[in-house]
Amino acid sequence: MTVSERTASERTASRPEQDASRVTYKLRLFIAGHEPNSVLARKKIREICAAHLEDNYELELIDVFEDFSAAVEERVVVTPALLIDAPTKARVLGNLQDTAKVLAALGLI
Amino acid sequence: MTAKKPTYQELEARLAAAEEIIAVLQAGQVDAVVGYEDFLLVRLKEVEEALRQQQERLSVALAASGGAIYEHSIPLDVTTYHDDRWAEILGYRPDDLPVPDRFLDWLFEQVHPEDRQPLQRAYTDFIEGRTSDYHVEIRLRHKQGHWIWVDGLSVASDRDEQGRVRRLVGMMTDITQRKDAEVALQQSEERFRLVVENSWDGIHQLDLRTNRYVFMSPAQEKLTGFPLDELEGLSLTETFARLHPDDREKVTAYLQTVISGDDPGEPMEYRWTVKSGHYRWFSDSRKLVRDRAGRPVSLIGVSRDITARKEAEAALRQLTESLEQQVADRTAEIREQADQLRALTLQLGQTEQRERRRMAQTLHDYVQQYIVAAKLRVEWIVNQTDGADQLHGPARQADEILDKALEASRALTLDLYPPALEMDGLAGGLSWLADSMAQKYQLTVSLRLEEHAEPAREDLRFFLFESARELLFNTAKHAGVKAAALTLARTADGRIELAVSDQGRGFEPDRLRNRNSQELTYGLFSLQQRLAHLGGRLEIKSVPGEGTTVTLTAPVGAGSPGETVAE
């Protein structure tokens, strides 16, 4: 299984039946393959989404090993990095283990 | 990127973003850093792998050194790190160590009470930036309860603006064995120091490269009278100058023996001028010390004042000498008395000889002449009378009595001083003696007389004659036989030898030897004494049942017995 395949499948897995325009939270997680912090970050963001965002979100996983042009475009210097595009633009760097910091960026606390 | 000039807000945002990037980098939450136009990509995993390898190499080196690594921030947090070896040194498994926020308190409790204060001080000085590193040797309690010695060296890996340590890394090593060895060495040195300082013997060390004394123990002050600071640094030449001149050669020889590596056996003894200017006797033994290459480096010595012993020895020697003198004096006295006794015996013999001669002379010249004269008168009366005459009978009886008296007188004369001895020498005398023995005791004496054995001196002839008579008389009286042999001969070395032997009863010679000389018959004792005076010897050979041989030997030319008599 390649990272790109997984990324694609995960993108579909995050509520494929929903219309993207209807959701409130649009998230992009930049990761670096299966590096430890990336694995931690991916696991953590799924937990947070499940716990706090219910079905009201869209999460895109972008592996910089596969595609770093998006990272360059978004000026993502380090991975893991969570980019929140909606409802308010924000970004959280690092492995996302600090849940409060992520929730604050999402405007939930 | 556009070349548009950023606004203040934009700059501030970028700075905040940069700070955030730095923060996650420092926190180790980053996997990769993404480059910009050149698409530079850094995988931290590779860096970590490199670090891990480096860590591994470090671990191997640490394992070899026995050291353990620790690292922590101040105050302690989750990043506190102790490697497995750290726990192992204290007897714990890594999982047993307490959690970080209790760790420092726990560790402090494990420190030996005597080490806590100095440790606290050193730690505070280091943490507050007063010292560059933190190096301690302390005792920690092992999990099993005993104390172990550890060496801890920490350096700061991060400090704040004031120089206070924010993070430190260090190494801990178990130095228990080294410390135990140090303590043992210290105790041994302490014991040695006590021995050296309290010994009555002086202990010193002579450096052979400079020929100067580099060490003197306190006892040397008492022994020599000099203060220690004057003694230390003395050269061999200076100490040599204070030696008694008669002892210098001996001391030089001793030192050469020791330096050449030989064992001199006993300590040397010498006289040395102490501070007061007097000689004192010292006993001194030296031992050679070599360096690792085997070259002689110094001499360790132990010296002792033996003046008292030497004086006692001298006193004893004097006493011995005086005792020996007394014994010699006493011996001389006894010898003198013995000589006097011998001289008296000799004199007695000579007196006897003289008296015998005089009496024989008197008997011959007067008594016998008177008897002959009386006999002539009595014979005239007998001739002038016949049996009828009443005088005839008594006159005849008187004549017979006079004949007997004359005969007795003649026999006495011969006994007292045999004329044969005077006229025919010793050989004649002995022949007469043999006849006399046969007549008086029915003892047959076979003679074997060598012609040239005849002594020239009359006193010796008389002595030998008297001796022969005494010995033959003993044979007749005790041997229980009717025959004896008498020989007179010269030995190979020119001495005269007179021997009387028989095949009679004999006796145990030991019996004779064990008796006091007083118990000997006067005759034999007198013989021995007179013979000794002549320088002669009496030998008795006898076996019970197998007879007796008595042999006299006397030097012919020995000093005249008469001359040695003190008158």
Walk me through what this model shows.
- The complex is a heterodimer of chains A (109) and B (567).
- Chain A is of the alpha+beta class and 109 residues long.
- Chain A contains 4 helices and 5 strands; from the N terminus they run αβαβαβββα.
- A 4-stranded mixed β-sheet of chain A has the order 2-1-4-5.
- In chain A, helix 2 links the parallel strand 1 and strand 2 (57-63).
- The longest helix of chain A is centred in the middle third of the chain and has 18 residues, at 36-53.
- Chain B has 567 residues and is of the alpha+beta class.
- In chain B, helix 11 crosses helix 16 (522-533) and helix 13 packs parallel to helix 14.
- Chain B is rod-shaped, with a radius of gyration of 62 Å.
- Classes of the chains: A alpha+beta (109), B alpha+beta (567).
- Strand 3 (78-79) of chain A pairs antiparallel with strand 1 of chain B.
| Structural class designation of chain B | alpha+beta
Tally of strands of chain B:
17
Quaternary state reads heterodimer
**Rg for CA atoms of chain A:** 13 Å
Largest sheet of chain A: 4 strands, mixed
Helical residue percent of chain B? 40-55%
Shape summary of chain A: globular
Indicate the overall shape of chain B.
rod-shaped
Number of helical segments with 4 or more residues of chain B: 17
- Biggest pleated-sheet summary of chain B: 5 strands, antiparallel
What is the residue-mean pLDDT of chain B, rounded to a whole number?
85
Which residue ranges of chain B are poorly predicted, with pLDDT under 50 across at least 5 consecutive positions? 558-567
Strand content of chain B: 15-25%
From the N-terminal CA to the C-terminal CA of chain A, the straight-line distance is 38 Å
Q: Rg of chain B from C-alpha positions?
A: 62 Å
Order of helices and strands of chain A: HEHEHEEEH
Helical content of chain A (DSSP H or I, runs of 4+): 25-40%
Question: In whole angstroms, how far apart are the ends of chain B?
Answer: 162 Å
Low-confidence stretches of chain A: 1-18
